[in-house]
Structure formats: structure tokens, C-alpha cells
Design brief:
The chain is α/β, with parallel strands linked by helices. It is built from ten helices and 16 strands. The chain has two domains: 78 residues, GMP Synthetase, Chain A, domain 3; 246 residues, Rossmann fold (3-Layer(aba) Sandwich). Strands 6, 7, 10, 11, 12, 13, 14, 15 and 16 form a nine-stranded mixed sheet that branches. A hairpin with a 4-residue loop joins β3 and β4. Bound molecules: adenosine-5'-triphosphate and magnesium ion (MG).
Length: 358
């Protein structure tokens, strides 16, 4: 007869991770099993992200499985998480302390990249991941305003200290310069600035560094992909045809520089009139989801066009900070992004999505 601990481990083998298609024991998620004198089992399960969308489901299943083991009188399951690092890229220096870099881009301007990047970072932070956001829009930095963060960053031992706000840290040219003065960077200068923002900032220990890119497929995107090992890219688009064309270009550009696509987010998907509840699909409908399926990349969710979202950015308190309806939308999207990152870091065989035009 195996001892109780063995029996508990064996019972836990029925709990499957729905994404990784393996049980939590085989995956090494069960970190400790102890049984006290009264027969109470204390189990710790460590997932690959605190933003795991199936965390609660796995906890319930584990509790049920353990309860079924004869001799167990009570159960306590503690869920923790340890975010895995992106696989090392021999050609690019990792950013000290940063486990994953998530680039947020789009082909077209004004589709809501910065809004999405900032809310995504805050949602990840809120779920317990150590998160930073880097404003790579060095011509027109918006991140400080959206975070409501002001002042100049400190410099300690020649390293810039990122600015804290809403549970995350951030860095932007906006903290360093007078934001009303337009900036003109030449190519080589721009590369130097990107390098500094990535490598000379003391990011500390971060699970996710979200990068808010400027629109298009230009110098900044190229510089980022050459300077840092980007785990994956999230593409933001509106459902409108012109935005989708540009989104496809952005997907192709990231694939060309070997950055995996984590998925597509459809922003400004629809407008729900607060007075009459009429749903207006201002920029057309479902374009983001259809494009994702045509390109063979994950669809990460849709965000409505909404006054509360816009106002929250203007006053520097993004909706993701709150638990309301819109906070929840960003939370779910953040979970899907974290899930894609976990999949990339766990399964070396996950192919880089290939553009498959039908
Ligand atoms: N879902 C939304 N609902 C309402 N307003 C939104 C939404 N998403 C973005 N906005 C607003 O649209 C404008 C453009 O958004 P944002 O600055 O995030 O776009 P962007 O893609 O980063 O632009 P750029 O290409 O200039 O960097 C902002 O005023 C923002 O507040
Ligand atoms: Mg922007």
C-alpha cells in the first residue's frame, strides 16, 4: 500500500492542464504535499503564470481529487505561480531581470495600442505578475499621461529607476523630456535611445515587460527586434478593413524578424449606447477575429469603444485598475496573453504562427 502522499500525487494525475494537455504532476506543478496528524492534506500547486485563466478550475479539481483519497480528512490547496523565462536567444542580450518581453504593435496609428498596452500591463500586475511597461513611442510618448505618472526618474549607479504607478513600473521618454517639444531622431540615434530604454533602466525582477510601440513597421520596431529578445507580439486592430490590412502587415513584419505572434486584439469593436443600449458597429464587425483565424494566430478578445475607457486614460487612472465591467475585459485579455506566453515557454515545438491566407 503506497503511503498517503503517494496516493495524493497519484490522485492529482487526473487534473489536466487544458492548454498543455498533460496532468499537473507530470508538468511538475505540484510543489509540496504534506499531511498533518489529523489527516489534513496541504498541497501547493505552482502554475506558469499568476494570470492563469483556469487557476480556479484547477484548484477545485485538485481539491476534489484529494478529497477522494481514503484517509484524507481535510484539504487545503494553495495556488502559486512562477513565470518561466523566454527561451534564450543567443544573438540578443537578455534584459537583466526581465523574463518576458511582450511587444504591442499595430500597422495603423490611433487604433488603441497605448491604451491596450497600459491596461494589459496593469491587469497583469493586478493578478500578481511583476510587470513593467516601456513606452517605445519615443516621438510621441503617451504612457506617462495614461498612467498619471509625473516627475523625473531617479538615476542610481548610472541606471535609470523606472517610475511606479498602479502596481506596475514604467519608463518613457516622456519622463525625460518636455512633452510639448516634438522630437526628431535620426536612425542611429533612435537605435541608441531604444538600447538605453531597454538595457540601462533598472527594471528589477519582472515577469512581463510590455512594450508600447509606435504605429507602423518602421525603425523602432526593427531596432527593438534587433536589440532585445522579444518573447512575442500582440497586434491591436480595429475591425475596419484599412486597419486590418495594416495589422496583416504588422504580423508579417514580426514574423520576418522571428518574433512569434501572441495574437490579435480587436479594439473599438462596437459601441453600446448607454442611453438606449443599441449596439453600433462603427468600425464594422468581427474583422479582428476573422483576420486572426485567416492568419492562423490566436484571437485574444475584443474591447468596446467606450467613453469610460477613454476618460480613464485621460485622467491617468486606466479602467484596468478597477474591478468593473471594463477592468474585467482587460483582465480576460491579459490572461489569454499570459497563457500564450506560457505556451511558448513550455512547449518548444509550438510553431511560430505562419501567415496562412485563404
Ligand atoms: N476602447 C476604447 N474606447 C474609447 N476610446 C479609446 C479606446 N481605445 C483607445 N481609445 C482612445 O483613442 C485614442 C487613441 O488611442 P491610443 O493612443 O491608445 O492609440 P495608439 O494606437 O496608441 O495611437 P498611436 O498610433 O498614435 O500611438 C485615445 O484618445 C484613446 O483614449
Ligand atoms: Mg500609442
Amino acid at each position: 500500500m503506497p503511503d498517503l502522499k503517494e496516493q495524493i500525487l497519484s490522485a492529482l494525475r487526473v487534473v489536466q492542464d487544458p492548454d498543455l494537455h498533460q496532468d499537473i504532476v507530470t508538468l511538475g506543478f505540484v510543489r509540496s504535499v504534506t499531511i498533518d496528524a489529523a489527516g489534513k492534506a496541504n498541497v501547493t500547486i505552482c502554475l506558469t503564470t499568476p494570470a492563469c485563466p483556469v487557476k480556479d478550475q484547477l484548484k477545485v479539481q485538485a481539491e476534489q481529487a484529494i478529497r477522494g483519497v481514503p484517509g484524507v480528512t481535510d484539504v487545503s490547496v494553495i495556488m502559486t505561480a512562477e513565470v518561466r523565462s523566454a527561451k534564450p536567444d543567443g544573438n540578443k542580450a537578455p534584459i537583466e531581470g526581465v523574463r518576458n518581453i511582450i511587444a504591442v504593435g499595430s500597422g495603423k496609428g490611433g487604433v488603441g495600442k497605448s491604451t491596450t498596452a497600459v491596461n494589459l500591463a496593469i491587469a497583469l500586475g493586478k493578478m500578481g505578475a511583476r510587470t513593467g511597461v516601456l513606452d517605445a513611442d519615443i516621438y510621441g510618448p503617451n504612457v506617462p499621461g495614461m498612467l498619471g505618472a509625473t516627475g523625473r526618474p531617479k538615476v542610481i549607479d548610472n541606471r535609470i529607476i523606472p517610475m511606479p504607478a498602479h502596481g506596475i513600473v514604467s519608463m518613457s521618454m516622456g519622463y525625460m523630456i518636455d512633452t510639448d517639444t516634438p522630437l526628431v531622431w535620426r536612425g542611429p540615434m533612435l537605435h541608441g535611445v531604444m538600447k538605453q530604454l531597454l538595457h540601462e533602466v533598472k527594471w528589477g525582477s519582472l515577469d512581463y515587460l510590455v512594450i508600447d510601440l509606435p504605429p507602423g513597421t518602421g525603425d523602432v520596431q526593427l531596432s527593438l527586434s534587433q536589440t532585445a529578445p522579444v518573447t512575442g507580439a500582440v497586434i491591436v486592430t480595429t475591425p475596419q478593413n484599412v486597419a486590418l490590412q495594416d495589422a496583416r502587415r504588422a504580423v508579417a513584419m514580426f514574423q520576418k524578424v522571428n518574433v512569434p505572434i501572441l495574437g490579435i486584439i480587436e479594439n473599438m469593436s462596437y459601441y453600446l449606447c448607454p442611453k438606449c443600449s443599441h449596439r453600433d458597429e462603427i468600425f464594422d464587425s468581427a474583422g479582428g477575429e476573422n483576420t486572426a483565424s485567416r492568419l492562423g494566430v490566436p484571437f485574444l478578445g475584443r474591447i468596446p469603444l467606450n467613453t469610460t475607457i477613454r476618460e480613464s486614460m485621460d485622467v491617468g487612472r486606466p479602467v484596468a485598475v478597477t474591478d468593473g465591467e471594463y477592468g474585467k475585459i482587460y483582465e480576460e485579455i491579459a490572461q489569454r496573453v499570459a497563457q500564450q506566453v506560457s505556451l511558448l515557454n513550455t512547449d518548444s515545438k509550438r510553431p511560430i504562427a505562419v501567415v496562412r491566407e485563404k
